[in-house]
Amino acid sequence: MPKTTSRLRTPFIHQLRMSIGGFFKWKSLAPVTILAYAILVIWALLSLFPLYWMAKNSLEPAMSLNQFPPNLVPINPTIENFMILIERVPIGRWTLNTLIVSTSRTVGAIFFGAMAGYAFAKLNFAGREIIFWILMSTLMIPSFITIIPQYQVIVRLGWLDTFAALIVPGLTGGVWSMFLMRQFVKTLPSELLEAARIDGATEFGIFSKIILPLMKPAIAVLGIFTFIANWNNFLWPLLVTTSNSMRLLAIGLSLLEGGTASAQAASQGQVLAGSTLAAIPMIIIFLIFQRYFLRGITIGAIKG
Amino acid sequence: MLRLSRALCFIFRAAVSNGADGWQLKMRTVGSLRSSPFSESKISRWTQFRSAFRKSNKWGYLFILPLVADFLFFTAYMVGFAVWLSFQQISAGNYTFVGLQNFERILRSPATWNALRNTLSYTSIVVVVGLAIALILSELIFRRSSKVQIFFKSAFYLPAVVSTIVISLVWYWIFNPFYGILNAAAGLIGIPPQNWLMNPNLALSSIIFMTLVSSGGPAIILLTAAMGGIPNELWDAARIDGASDWTRFWRVTVPLLRPTLLYLFVVGFIGNFQVFEQIYILTSGGPGFPGATETVGFLIYDSAFRAMQFGQSAALSLLLFVFILIFSIVQFRVFSSELEY
Questions:
Q1: How many other C-beta atoms can be found within 10 angstroms of the C-beta atom of residue B239?
Q2: Range of B193's domain?
Q3: By the 8 A CB rule, do A253 and B165 touch?
Q4: Does B293 have pLDDT greater than 50?
Q5: Number of structural domains in chain B
Q6: Main-chain dihedrals φ then ψ at residue B209, nearest 5 degrees
Q7: 3-state secondary structure of B91
Q8: Per-residue pLDDT tens for A67-100?
């Protein structure tokens, strides 16, 4: 249809819709588009609101939190919740513990996962397929099955309340990391390895000098996700830590409320101040590595 | 078991291959699923293995050693230990063999069936409704400009990088019956204040709502990535044939997303069946007895670490595994029959 006639026949309301649409670089602001954006915005608000609420309430004094209806924006922002929390519980120590545990388990998952993934993808050895499938089939085993016996073993080893109990079980990152790495290594050309072998490189040399550097994208993805998963891990660290100074952040926070972690039960503002401190590093990681998350969670960089 | 794990691996691969060539890859894996990786020749497996072993690259064994050792001790041995534990009664550190008594007790206990029912309703709603929402949202953002996509994907994903504990702690105060914002919001649309977490009829729904709102991101990312793998020609063809947007979505997009949807379904099911953290923070399995929000995962924790009934708890965890296994087999059956097209 020629443009002029359509403009002549278009009622005012449609013209308005089109010009608003043009402003936002939308083709037209059709009712369907408006509805679509309405749904998206509502869901985004629902999804982000708790995070906003956490930050906002952590900045409110106790007085203004105990009133109904609550303020939507902080009226008298203060950092007193953070100060009281730091004074009352060893939150710095909890953060340090979480950092130590998450970092070492991430390094373990990357290194051992890459090693096993490389072997399953590129090295020929008898029983490779069957071992691989047996490992894969265990992905269905719920963690609750292993957690109870594991706890008893840790108690008997005398590892309760130590870093060993927090770090060692599952240090190799498990089947999932191996699988991710295998999928990536499979896409690398085998000729590369053949050439290195002819040049007399050792197998470990090939792995550390050729494979690992080529795996950077996969390592980034696995590293980020393992780090976040460990930072947020809850049940196992809850079970194997008993003293206040060995707690990880999430566990310490969960105990704040019941008053187990300090002499006095913490107030809403203090709990949410702690939550904010635990959440901020993850949000920063997300914003820095956004593209890894948005490309397709686990393995955007890995195909096939 | 092996057939099942092959199917699992297939769907993992299907979910993994969501790049530009994802669609073709999916079609290719459909073919490879049917051919068995093990040769069916008449020579004995052992002779085959020995000759293969001689030709093996022995470094392979060294490279998988850490993972296999970790697996053998912290998974295989522990599962065996759990089976053994489930036949024991433990009091004051002494283990006594009691046969099937633990199983009998948990199967007779109304708490077990209550927990299973709660877990099943929680899981089915969170997975099915969650996937439906994720599918709709993915379709809504998929053809927008990349800036709009990045904004909404980030907004939906952000809660997933924050610990469930933190999310639950915030929602604990949102649900607060006296000062909570949810009651303020409900008041605006004329709903009287509710005790969201302490009302037995509401508590589980409140937790489901919280989970749905804060965990859709990963599924949306996977689905939009998989949509990107669908060749444009298919949509164009559908448009030329005069299909409406709705038909195109329902007849072209959804069938081609099936591998990804199935992956999300199976993984979501296995994961959500073990729900624990939300319950631990928000309700501790309550209110009432048997608890209105007590799930199998929470009951396992509760009977092991509060009631100190390790034997019963181990039996319960095996029961959970059996349920997950049965569901996975059912899903696999449904799935493999759908593969025949």
A1: 13
A2: 106-338
A3: yes
A4: yes
A5: 1
A6: -60, -45
A7: strand
A8: 878 888 888 888 999 999 998 889 999 999 999 9
The answer as to whether B194 is a domain residue is yes
- Residues facing B242 on adjacent strands: none
Rounded to 5 degrees, φ, ψ at B200 are -55, -25
Q: Length of chain B in residues, anyone?
A: 341
Omega within 30 of 0 (cis) for the link into B290: yes
Of the candidates B158, B166, B179, which has its C-beta nearest A286's C-beta? B158
The CATH number of A85-294 is which of 3.40.50.300, 3.30.43.10, 3.30.450.20, 1.10.3720.10?
A: 1.10.3720.10
- Those of residues 73-112 in B touching chain A at CB distance below 8 A are 74-79, 81-82, 85
- CA separation, residue A43 to residues A47, B58, B70, B137 (Å): 6, 54, 41, 9
> Which residues make beta-bridge pairs with B88?
B97
A27 CB within 8 Å of a chain B CB: no
Note which residues in 247-306 of chain B have CB less than 8 A from chain A: 270, 273-274, 276-277, 280-281, 296-297, 300-301, 304-305
Please indicate whether residue A63 or residue B135 has the higher confidence score (pLDDT). Answer: B135
Q: Which of residues 123-162 of A touch B (CB under 8 A)?
A: 123-131, 133-153
Among A136, A140, A124, A141, residue whose Cα is nearest residue A193: A124
Q: Is residue B15 part of a domain?
A: no
The two three-digit tokens of residue A34, written as one number: 């408006």
- pLDDT 10s digits, B143-158: 888 889 999 999 999 9
**Partner-chain contact A47 B159, CB within 8 Å:** yes
Any idea what the CATH number is for the domain that residue B228 is in? 1.10.3720.10
Task: Write the CB contacts of A211 (distance below 8 Å, at least 6 apart in sequence).
Answer: A114, A118, A185, A188, A193
Distance from B341 to chain A by nearest Cα, in Å? 22
Residue type, position B50, single letter: R
Does the predicted interface ipTM exceed a cut of 0.90?
no
Check if A197 contacts B (Cβ < 8 Å): no
Q: Which residues of A79-100 are buried (b: 16+ CB within 10 A; e: fewer)?
A: eebbebbbeebbbeebbebbee
- Domain ranges across chain A: 3-58, 85-294
B contact residues 135-174, partner A, Cβ 8 Å cutoff: 136-137, 140-141, 145, 150, 152-159, 161-167, 169-174
